[in-house]
Amino acid sequence: MTLFATHAITGHKNQKGIVLVVALLILIVMTVLSVSMLSSSMLEERMASNLQSQNTTFQAAESCIRTTLQPANEVSRQNAALALDINPNTIVTPIKCTFDNTTIPAQVDFSAPPPGGMISGFTTGGVVKAYPMALSGTSSLVSGTSSTVQEVIQQIGPP
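User: That's the sequence. What structure does it adopt?
Assistant: Structure tokens below.
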């Protein structure tokens, strides 16, 4: 006994490539999404790099001020305070800092505090005198990122 199919498959003749068009549309949408995600990822990477550079320069400037305030630099601070007390427009040689031979340049500039500030000098009757002084720590990288940290201190020295 032999069986023959009496119904022929006719549905494939009516499609005329619609599955191919749908697949191409899905591929185009996925490509657009992946390209936009890639550009967003690159932007986030640049933002993280800039934030890291900013943090590095800030830490270097702050560390340079802390180094300047150490007892080893007492004489440099006293000389700067005396020179600024005599003439507030004096340009004092800045202290340059290096950190474990790294390539992050940082320096501290000395200047007279801004006028109208809350800090003023005092004396203890001729024994010692406090000289107000502004410290400005700066650091910059080759990429163009830079940071400045400013502090006003009282430097104790001879009258």
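The mean pLDDT is 80.
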